[in-house]
What we know:
Immunoglobulin-like, mainly beta, five-stranded antiparallel sheet, about 450 residues, disordered N terminus, 4 domains
Amino acid sequence: MKKLGLILGFILFLPGAFALNVSVENPEPVIAGSSAFFRISLFNDGPPGWFSLSVLGTKASWVTLETPAVYLPGGATKTVKVWVSPPVDAYPASYVFRVIVSGAGEREEARVNLIVKQLSAASLSVVNLSCDTCEPGSLLKAVLELKNTGSRALRDLKVSASFLGRTVQREVKTLEPGGSARISVSFEIPERYPPGTEVLEARAVGEEILANASAKIRIPEVKNIAIEKRTDEGLFSLSVTLKARNLGNVRSEAVVSDRVPEAWYTFFVGPEPFSKNGLYRWKKVLAPGESFEVNYSVVYWPLVLGTVAVIVLILVYLYGFRPVSIKKRTLRKAKVSEGSEFTVVLEIKNGHREAEAVVVRDFVPSMFEVVGGFETKKPVVRKTSEGAKLVWRLGKLNPGEERVLSYKVRCRIGIIGSVKLPPASVSCRVSGKRVLKRSGRTSIRGADE
């Protein structure tokens, strides 16, 4: 009895004494051309060890194991995925696969049934792409080919293609057995679309989904910083605007630079620049579509001061040293008609020097007549066929002295539109030189316009 107990104990502790349990689940029916998977559940009720897995059958080439071997500690459970991918032309049927798990002298087997279905006898593929690496802002053109691989005609088919959230659809009215149709589609890739890999997806639909197709499109990383410089030159200043814009599809550092006069009269607006030997640089990281700008101005103070001085001298000369001047204006209603009267005023102003032999002359056209109104000095009136000449002899004018002369006229006829009165003039002698100045012309508006 003692010898028998030792023998049984030795057998129980042999390395091959495993208690392995294997179970599988049948996968859902799969469409030819797509994939399905099922799980192998392993439970080791014995000592730890390695186990190998294999799947056998007439279509074993369709099978992909998650792993060909697993290590299971005692009392542990492990699940292994198995993918099955029947090709597009797979015959619709039920296929049996044998799952075999073995390790350390122990072997367990289970069976799996896979049902393969065909949606219809058609295939769809992407046969041509204008680019498989397409930059943002470009146009992606694709050609799809739909084939009828069955024995009956396909009618009223709809082929749709989707890319970057946009879908286009085309119709194929009839597709005979063995026939094919090519469909062209195009998609605009937005400016600054982020880099990555996108998928062009296509589908053909009749009474049911017939076929699918897809293609991967790579959108590359584009770094494109555009620099724009705008210069506005004034008479006394220079204004420069530097603008950087990120036209790419990734965040990028923008660097703008310019040579700027290093002087106290240079002013900057915007980010703080970095300068070296007169070369100024500005840096900023920009998101796609983002921009920034800097501005600097140079004011040429020496030229400004010199110009201001010249202007002051000119103004002093014009308004402080100019000789005698004359202005002519009218005191009237807004509009005049036949028989209306209005007053003409002449304003004479002397310059900074004494004026001698001052004579003021004016002319009244024949459509008007002088009716008096000489409130200051009365002129000498000499009538002609063209009108009346008025002459005032004022003699001497002191520096800065002003005189105001006036007279009243009456309209002999109605005025249509407006009439400009002739300019008045003043003549004199200043420092021995003869001076003659004329006034501007004033307008009379008729009541009949």
